[in-house]
Specification:
Length: 204
Amino acid sequence: MKLKKKDIFFQTLENMADTIVQAADYFSQHVSNLTDVTGFANEMKKFESQCDTYTHTIITELNKTFITPIERDDIMDLTTSMDDVIDGLEATASRFYMYQLGQPDEYIVQFAEILRQSSYEIQKAIHLLSQKKLLAIREYTIRLNDLENQGDELLRICTKQLFATVSDPIELIKRKEIYERLEMTTDTCEDVANMLESIIMRNS
């Protein structure tokens, strides 16, 4: 008996989620000890390009497929929001390179950990979506919302600390932008959760 081939959309979304996990893992592992900032930025760019390829696959398939497993708009919006997560990680890494940022501080490391955890929640949720276990996804969307709240709180703490301790305006601008970009990336993880929530509502 031939095994049923997995739907191209679900397969590509899973591949994308797996790449987000790899990227967030890499980011989190290397950001705490940045010895080679150029290599770090280049490696993150590879993950981002890989996700662009998956996005392209989904657009191509949507253009030629008549019946899709869930609404076309849902597939597209989910793909876009997942792509935004990897874009956020890559954009942060490229700023480490552009600003020649010294050692990342404890707050950047904490943001990286929040994003690493978020990426695993996205991965679990997307794999459940493939299996059409829609209601089981809720557990992970709740976790993603919670992690985004942690990101908000961390931004408040580190911004306050930044203005209290850093007097060099250039250093302050660099750090502030990195913090805000990391927090924005936690927002994009929550966008994925919100997209999944609306898919659950429409299909269950």
